[in-house]
Design a protein that fits this description.
Length: about 130
């Protein structure tokens, strides 16, 4: 019999200052990639490689007609860069993180809440991710 592997989606990322101190002094490439993607793309999804929650986020957005840019975090150094980018928008972020229109929307729970309330499509239209 197979046993499910527990996944804790509500695990908050470490504080940005602690992770920034642990990042390489030359500036994390992950941070630059994420900053550039958030600035250029209307929708960016940041998640761990192979994460089922990231897959759900991508499928929900694709079902609405949005083609999000995806940044997969492989290690703690990449995670530190993402935390620095997201810390400016409120700090405590969980994976997967969804950026819409250059701002952090939140994780899967926030995305689902906004979708169910009917606010997601107008937000995506305002960001330029939907044209219909």
């Amino acid at each position: 019999m197979y046993q499910a592997i527990p996944y804790n989606a509500s695990r908050a990322w470490p504080a940005a200052t602690a992770m920034a101190a642990a990042a390489p002094a030359s500036g994390g490439g992950g941070e630059d990639e994420v900053r550039k993607a958030v600035a250029e793309c209307p929708v960016v999804v940041v998640g761990r490689s192979g994460c089922c929650l990231s897959h759900v986020v991508k499928r929900l957005l694709q079902g609405l007609g949005v083609n999000p840019a995806v940044h997969e975090v492989a290690g703690e150094a990449d995670l530190a860069g993402v935390v620095v980018v997201a810390a400016g928008d409120g700090g405590g972020v969980t994976l997967p993180a969804v950026f819409v229109g250059g701002r952090l929307l939140g994780g899967l729970d926030r995305l689902m809440a906004v979708h169910i309330s009917g606010e997601l499509v107008p937000i995506l239209k305002e960001a330029g991710a939907l044209w219909l």
